[in-house]
Structures are given as C-alpha cells and as structure tokens.
User: Which sequence fits this backbone?
C-alpha cells in the first residue's frame, strides 16, 4: 500500500492548525493579563480622583469659614476670584 498524498496534506493541515491554536492561545493570555493590569490602573486612578474631589470639596467648605485660603483656591482654579474684583461697570454714554 502506497502512502497517499492526502495523508501528508491532512497531517500538514493538522500541524498548522495546532501551531495556530498555540499562537492564538498565547495572544489571548497576553491580552487578558494586560487587560487585568489596565483595570487595576483604572481602579487606582478612579480612587485617587475620588479622594482628590473629596479633598477639594472639604477645602471649599473650609474656605467659607476661613477665607485666608481663597488665594490658594483661586490659584489652582477651584474657586472663582471674588465678586468685587470681577465686577464690571456698565458702559457710560
């Protein structure tokens, strides 16, 4: 019985399919690890942002009792400049 070329072709197709499966599995695992790392970074950023927002809110509340911090808040754009400094006079005719 002779070796059929069909057997060789099917064996080559099987080897290519197995190699492609290994490559795709490796890519999937790599992407899953990267996704997990990015999700952790995103959670850390969101937590830090929430903490900074809470701090800004607390400082704005504190500035109502102690206006000495207003220049600092104006410098970091957390508070508008006082109304007396930005009042525009109506145009005279």
Assistant:
């Amino acid at each position: 019985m002779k070796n059929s070329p069909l057997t060789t072709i099917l064996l080559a197709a099987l080897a290519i399919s197995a190699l492609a499966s290994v490559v795709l599995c490796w890519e999937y695992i790599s992407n899953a690890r990267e996704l997990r790392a990015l999700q952790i970074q995103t959670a850390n950023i969101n937590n830090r942002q929430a903490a900074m927002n809470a701090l800004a809110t607390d400082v704005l509340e504190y500035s109502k009792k102690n206006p000495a911090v207003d220049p600092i808040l104006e410098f970091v754009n957390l508070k508008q400049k006082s109304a007396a400094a930005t009042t525009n006079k109506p145009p005279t005719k």
